[in-house]
Amino acid sequence: MRITKRSLALAGVAAAVSVGSCYSLDVTAVQPTTSFTREQVLQKPELIELVVAGLFINFWGGATYGQPWIQLSLYGEEITTSANSSPNFNRAATQPIILWDFAQEPRVAFDNSVTGTSLFARDPWSNFYEANAAATDMPRLIKEKHLKIIDPATGADNTQRVLTFAKWLQGLTHIHLAMLFDSSAVIDETVDLSKVPNLPFHHHNEVRDSGIKWLEDAIRMAQEKSFILPLKADLWVYNTAVSNDELIAIAHSYIARAMVYTARNPTERAAVDWATVKQHIAAGVTAPFGPRGLPNPIISMDYRAMMSSPPQNTAAICTAGTTNFCGPHAGVARVDLRLLGPADTSGAYQEWLQKVSAPRFDTVAPFIVRTPDKRIQSPSETVPLTKPVYFKFTDVVPPATIMPTERGPYYWSNYWSSSRALNNHTQLPLDGGGRARRNVADLGLIQDAMLLPAEMDLLMAEAELRLGNAAAAAALINKTRVGNGELPPVTAAGVTPEPGCVPKLYDGSCGTLMDALMYEKRIETYGTAISYFDLRGWGCLLEGTPTELPPPGRQLDLLGKSQYTYGGHPGTPGSAPRPTNCPLLHRP
Questions:
Q1: Which end of the chain is least crowded, N or C, by CB within 10 Å?
Q2: Number of alpha carbons in the 13 Å side-chain half-sphere of residue 152
Q3: Residue 512 and residue 495 in contact, taking contact as beta carbons nearer than 8 Å
Q4: 10 Å Cβ neighbour count for 466?
Q5: Strand ranges inside 63-174, DSSP E
Q6: Distance (Å, whole) CA 522 – CA 542
Q7: For 459-494, what is the HEC assignment?
């Protein structure tokens, strides 16, 4: 459900109206797909809860779908492609998701102009501000007019639930704005969007701190009264029921993310208050959180049909119309070899890194990963679709119609992903206490896991390592390294030196404990675009990669500000320098 809006300096919905002090609301009386104009919302204040309940879709769209998350996955060297673009399933065919401008090396500045076709900056900006606008205006109306939202069926007062959910979304949107943009506006209940305010932009650290404060407020509000955000197809947390306790856990995890992932370089990441990060992770999610809907586009981009036997050798590139994973994005990307290469024990990765560090790197062919890591399929292994292998082998060369041959074989690999694609039809409790979720039976939808326990475990491992607790870090790394990869455990000293060690560095030596953590996290969080924020903070982005986004060019033009962009100029503000201390991915 979306609210249609007029053109504003910052996308929003005004809710200043004089109404009675108490009313009843029956959310089920209104179809969740209904679109409301600003005037209708003002005339029927009983729609306020429905408006707030429909805002998660906007946040979800900005946080996991389309642009910029596919491009961030390219920048984070999770996926690779030489395709020009991919259809944008949220927009008309005239607005495709641009790929080549972000995949090509050396990196180039992305087009942030008013007339540019890339929605890299525009889509998240508009999604987050659209969600935040109503998340601040509706509570302001409730408070100014002393309204109460009463459930007509039960007589329950749902006002606290609405205010808490809105505050939670207010915090989440600002945290994501801070993670992505160099600066943005801070909007709270004191801002009257009906007056189309020209708000100042604040440094991303200030935007981050505002988001953290509002999540802390949401935590306190959720602790005051128990509630359930009910399972509704387009409302609350899409197709997922969430309690106040679970909302609290999610907020703690996002605060931990905010503290770490806003760092633009290794110095800032090292300066994070890691002791406080640990506290928030400990109070955060312990099972996957995410709505149930269409597949994550990063995962579905390199997913292909497995329709023959043995499937890994002869299946064709997926075409549209057969399954959720055979949609408009399928087959336009492969898994990046810098993600899987450190697992190779044959020496092929080191040889490949040597070649791609030289002129004419684009002519270098991909290599086959030979590894003991069970999450990566061996070419000789026939793997049934039901086996939880993350990355599967294919000998199918990408068609030239998808990936132009003149751009070279460097931009493709022999791997596609099935990570979380087939085994997320069931929901797990967030509290880890065995509580079943209050969901209907399997809806036939995929859980778009926005927060994974593995991410939190490995973020905790980094905290422990930076605080000098190497043994504790090793134990956390081994949870997935041993449990999922069936690799030998690491110790406080790092990876045990042996010919078949994983991960291996550019020179063939065995990785340190930090290298093992980096490899493990990139493998386990594949498809979430978290790798971009990690590589940025670790100093591992390919030189010239943008380290942040400017406000979209259309927004700058609207506010009379000069146009600018980032990327393509290594070492300058907003462009990553050459990585000199990242032996897992780059030759120094």
A1: C
A2: 9
A3: yes
A4: 16
A5: 79-80, 85-86, 97-98, 149-150
A6: 15
A7: HHHHHHHHCCCHHHHHHHHHHHHCCCCCCCCCECCE
Structure tokens at 117: 């076709």
**Residue 329 in tokens:** 């994005």
Query: Is 157 in a helix, a strand, or coil?
Result: strand
Interval 104-131: pLDDT, tens: 999 999 999 988 777 889 989 999 998 9
Kindly report the pTM of this predicted structure: 0.87
**Cα torsion at 265, 270, 272, 277 (round to 10°)?**
120
Please state the φ and ψ torsions of residue 150, each to the nearest 5 degrees.
-110, 130
| Triad 461, 462, 467: Cα angle to 5° | 100
What is the spatial distance between Cα 80 and Cα 301, in angstroms, rounded to a whole number?
Answer: 10
Q: Residues of the chain with pLDDT > 90: what percent?
A: 50
Longest alpha-carbon distance in the chain: 75
The per-residue pLDDT for 44 is 60
Name the nearest CA neighbour of 150 among 235, 48, 245, 14: 48
Give me the helices (H) in 16-121, please.
Answer: 38-43, 48-53, 56-64, 66-75, 100-103
Read off the tokens for 503. Answer: 């991960």
Identify the helix (H) or strand (E) that includes residue 163.
Answer: helix 159-180
Token pair of 94 as six digits: 């005239």
In 187-224, which positions are buried (b, 16+ CB within 10 angstroms) versus exposed (e)?
A: bbbebebbeeeeeebbebeebbbbbbebbbbbbebbee
Which of 244-258, 374-388, 395-409 ranks highest by mean pLDDT?
A: 244-258
Backbone dihedral region for residue 408 (phi beyond 0: left; psi -120 to 50: alpha; all else: beta): left
Q: Do the Cβ atoms of 6 and 36 come closer than 8 Å?
A: no
Amino acid present at 547: T
Quick one: angle between helices 244-261 and 159-180, nearest 10?
Answer: 20
- Bin 560: left if φ > 0, else alpha if -120 < ψ < 50, else beta: left
Strand 23-24 to strand 149-150: parallel, antiparallel, or no bridges (unpaired)? Answer: parallel
8-state DSSP, 366: P
Average predicted confidence (pLDDT) for the chain: 80
Is it true that the peptide bond before 68 is cis, omega within 30 degrees of 0? yes
Contact 580, 588 (CB under 8 A): yes
Kindly state the DSSP code that residue 375 receives in the 8-state scheme.
T
Other beta carbons within 10 Å of 175: 28
Whether the Cβ atoms of residue 150 and residue 25 lie closer than 8 Å to each other: yes
Phi/psi at 423 (5° precision): -120, 25
Determine how many CB atoms are found less than 10 A away from the CB of residue 248: 23
For 568: left if phi > 0, alpha if psi spans -120 to 50, otherwise beta; the answer is: left
Among left, alpha and beta (phi > 0; psi -120 to 50; other), residue 207 is alpha
- Listed in sequence order, the residues at least 6 apart from 448 whose beta carbon sits closer than 8 Å to its beta carbon are 60, 64, 290, 291, 292, 293, 294, 295, 296
DSSP label at residue 31: -
